[in-house]
């Protein structure tokens, strides 16, 4: 059977999910951004192979330089992930993935495990940033960078 989600959209959220919400330069999990491994100013593009998760500090330190110029190495080489790695399930609502009908449970178990792992990583990254900033409001930043989630939502 052909995979229904053979291509994963290259988005900020999916890059962070692929990288486990972890800076690919230092391993940090706070103030995460997206970095172009090969700088755009030097011809780098918007592709899976050129985008990685980076903490704000590493991203600013790297600026428009190459890894070779800095003597840096990536924790993992960027690549296009599979739909399974990102946890996409075509045509299935999130509520069904979290609380599937009994007959679906066996089929969805691997996706649920990955979803929970991604949610934990996103929660830890966002909470760490909030603690550093002294927010303490009971809310955290949405891992895709847009909006705010209540802690109970993740």
From TrEMBL:
<dbReference type="InterPro" id="IPR002711">
    <property type="entry name" value="HNH"/>
</dbReference>
<protein>
    <recommendedName>
        <fullName>HNH nuclease domain-containing protein</fullName>
    </recommendedName>
</protein>
<dbReference type="Pfam" id="PF01844">
    <property type="entry name" value="HNH"/>
</dbReference>
<dbReference type="GO" id="GO:0008270">
    <property type="term" value="F:zinc ion binding"/>
</dbReference>
<dbReference type="InterPro" id="IPR003615">
    <property type="entry name" value="HNH_nuc"/>
</dbReference>
<feature type="domain" description="HNH nuclease">
    <location>
        <begin position="11"/>
        <end position="60"/>
    </location>
</feature>
<dbReference type="GO" id="GO:0004519">
    <property type="term" value="F:endonuclease activity"/>
</dbReference>
<dbReference type="GO" id="GO:0003676">
    <property type="term" value="F:nucleic acid binding"/>
</dbReference>
<dbReference type="InterPro" id="IPR052892">
    <property type="entry name" value="NA-targeting_endonuclease"/>
</dbReference>
